[in-house]
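note to self — DONT lose this again. spent like an hour looking for the file last time. sequence + predicted structure for the chain T wanted, 158 res
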Amino acid sequence: MIVISDTSPLRYLVAIGHVDVLPVLYGRILCPPEVLAKCQHSMSPAALRAWTAKPPDWLVVVTSVSSWTHSELARLDEGEVAAIRLAHEQAADLLLMDERKGRQIAQRLGFRVSGILAVIADAARRQLLDFDQAVLKLTQETNFRVSPQVLDAIRSQL
């Protein structure tokens, strides 16, 4: 399975102490250097900067050699564009991305996209973490927000 990650899933999982679910769920994760650069930006959380300073072997930084583009990509930030471009080039099975505009554009372009809640739910199904505890930590320690109705819908599928 080829999985590409944008910045936010890595950021959120590092923040809540569950980034190690990624290789268990998906094997290796590819990310473009632009994503790693965003993770290492001085305004990024210290824990994320420290984690990406010495990324694990399962996080593989891959530079896209493709010049593929689409007019809608102009509406996204550099990391999202690079992740979508890499997903296109690698014929990715899954793109991990949380920003609404980026997700919508990636889905319109035909990519299968999952966000942090889907990752947490998948990890909970495999008993790698407790869903409610992980979501509570996510909403308390990051800027991530989710409605109770969405959480109830996910819980009903666990």
